[in-house]
């Protein structure tokens, strides 16, 4: 493939053409219809291809060309984009035998509710019924589930400097540019930086100058520098090739054994995190026979010196994990599929690996001598984007760490947003008998937990006006409990309610 388009004037003309064609998320949705668009999100192209088959509009042409990887008529392509510059810029190629044009890269509409962007990446390897290009070692991946997870997880407070470690096609850098004055995006794969450069120029126009691209591994390109916000969707895949120091694909294989990449990232990140800064990283980590996963990760996290929230979202057994990443690379259609599948299973068995987890790690550099660390499994549905709730999570834990029991008794508490009380009862001879009473959040993390009658009274009385001690004394009288006994006995339960967000300090 020739060098990707670099001429600013040509890029601006392409950007204008994409806008004029309404080649956007909304435009593609309208052209394909909801059913076909949803199927495409599952990597199935049949319905989308049928939907635009007889449509010669520019948005349909661009969808066929870049998203569905179909050859399109040259005349139609010329009407949809500056064809000569797209050819010389390495984006498309003309077939001289039949007068058609084919894509050399994927240019995919992307964005948020109020902005349209375009992500430039290699052609998809797993598109069902599409013309899949063989994956090269320096393959540049487009947006995927991990990308959107990280984008939704990230705190979106305005900051001066932000860092995207392992930028790939540049998707996280686009998000960061909306609330960071300066963005640095790095990648070991120098080819990925070429794609990210075109992604940012197409999407942001002149504003792309605020994104600086640097080559190198992990934090090597930013030695000695600090950032207010760090995000990373690194090459965290655990594979037999990486274990041997021979990662097949740069975008996913770090060439390190097991979950060593996770450990190294946590070891290096704190030195680059400014005071009160956040770091968000996605990772895989191992479940090893005879050892709790929290015990493996806790020393790595504790060593950062930062407040830390580690969440395990998913756990796959060795077979599931092997199948996932063999599909990702298109190997499910390869004659070497069985051989590569066996290699995964052999590696896991030899290292007593029972499963591989996917999750997130968030650090906050609070500068405290006794940082808060929490490692938990959280597999339930949560509200997205979650980033809006992350500062509150850390604020609650900081409050609890800095507030002794006497101070807590003097604190005015109120019910957290979206908290409801639910009760289940069954009918009997004497009427209805409660079988389960719990608090549940309808927002954020959607936590829930059982609660007893005294707890219900405490939460119900937390009106944001009276201190906790006064509430407990009143409730003690209502239940015939010694006030001093309730004060001492209820504090741990109240702390747990604040920790989960059922109660908040006013």
List the helices and strands and how they pair.
Layout: H1 8-20, H2 25-32, H3 34-41, H4 46-52, H5 58-67, E1 72-73, H6 74-80, H7 83-88, E2 92-95, E3 100-103, E4 106-112, E5 115-121, H8 145-153, E6 159-165, H9 171-176, E7 180-187, H10 190-204, E8 211-215, E9 227-232, H11 240-243, H12 260-268, E10 273-288, H13 293-302, E11 307-316, H14 318-328, H15 337-350, E12 353-364, E13 373-377, H16 390-402, H17 405-409, E14 412-415, E15 419-428, E16 431-441, E17 448-450, H18 453-461, E18 463-467, H19 468-479, H20 483-500, E19 503-505
Report how far apart the termini are.
60 Å
Number of alpha- plus pi-helical segments: 20
Average pLDDT for all residues: 95
Give the number of DSSP strands.
Answer: 19
Structural class: alpha/beta
**Beta-strand percentage range:** 25-35%
Low-confidence stretches: none
Largest sheet geometry: 8 strands, mixed
Percent helix: 25-40%
Lateral arrangement of strands in the main beta sheet: 8-7-6-9-10-12-11-13
The Cα radius of gyration reads 26 Å
Choose one word for the global shape. Answer: elongated
């Amino acid at each position: 493939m020739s060098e990707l388009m670099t001429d600013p004037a040509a890029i601006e003309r392409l950007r204008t053409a994409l806008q004029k064609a309404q080649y956007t998320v909304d435009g593609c949705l309208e052209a394909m219809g909801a059913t076909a668009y949803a199927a495409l999100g599952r990597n199935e192209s049949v319905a989308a291809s049928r939907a635009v088959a007889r449509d010669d509009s520019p948005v349909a042409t661009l969808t066929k060309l870049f998203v569905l990887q179909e050859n399109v008529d040259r005349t139609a392509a010329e009407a949809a984009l500056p064809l000569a510059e797209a050819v010389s810029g390495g984006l498309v190629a003309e077939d001289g035998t039949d007068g058609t044009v084919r894509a050399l890269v994927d240019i995919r509409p992307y964005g948020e509710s109020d902005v349209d962007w375009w992500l430039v990446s290699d052609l998809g390897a797993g598109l069902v019924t599409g013309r899949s290009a063989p994956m090269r070692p320096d393959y540049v991946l487009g947006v995927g589930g991990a990308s959107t997870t990280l984008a939704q997880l990230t705190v979106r407070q305005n900051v001066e400097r932000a860092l995207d470690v392992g930028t790939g096609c540049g998707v996280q850098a686009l998000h960061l540019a909306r609330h960071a004055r300066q963005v640095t995006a790095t990648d070991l794969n120098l080819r990925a930086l070429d794609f990210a450069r075109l992604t940012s120029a197409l999407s942001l126009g002149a504003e792309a100058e605020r994104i600086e691209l640097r080559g190198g591994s992990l934090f090597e390109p930013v030695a000695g520098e600090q950032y207010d916000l760090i995000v990373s969707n690194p090459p965290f895949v655990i594979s037999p090739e990486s274990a041997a120091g021979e990662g097949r694909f740069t975008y996913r294989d770090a060439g390190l054994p097991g979950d060593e990449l996770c450990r190294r990232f946590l070891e290096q990140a704190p030195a680059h995190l400014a005071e009160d800064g956040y770091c968000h990283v996605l990772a895989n980590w191992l479940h090893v026979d005879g050892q709790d996963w929290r015990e493996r990760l806790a020393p790595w996290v504790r060593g950062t010196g930062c407040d830390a929230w580690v969440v395990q979202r998913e756990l796959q057994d060795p077979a599931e994990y092997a199948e996932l990443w063999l599909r990702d690379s298109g190997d499910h259609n390869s004659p070497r599929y069985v051989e590569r599948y066996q290699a995964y299973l052999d590696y896991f068995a030899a290292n007593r690996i029972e499963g591989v987890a996917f999750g997130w790690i968030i650090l906050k550099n609070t500068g405290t001598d006794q940082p808060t660390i929490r490692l938990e499994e959280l597999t339930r549905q949560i509200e997205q984007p979650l980033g809006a709730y992350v500062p509150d999570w850390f604020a609650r834990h900081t409050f609890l760490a800095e507030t002794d029991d006497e101070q807590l008794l003097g604190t005015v508490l109120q019910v957290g947003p979206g908290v409801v009380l639910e009760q289940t009862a069954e009918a009997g001879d004497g009427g209805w008998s409660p079988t389960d009473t719990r608090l549940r959040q309808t927002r954020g993390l959607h936590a829930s937990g059982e609660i007893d009658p005294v707890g219900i009274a405490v939460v119900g009385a937390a009106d944001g006006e009276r201190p906790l001690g006064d509430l407990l004394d009143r409730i003690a009288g209502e239940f015939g409990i010694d006030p001093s006994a309730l004060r001492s006995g209820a504090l741990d339960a109240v702390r747990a309610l604040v920790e989960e967000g059922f109660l908040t300090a006013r």
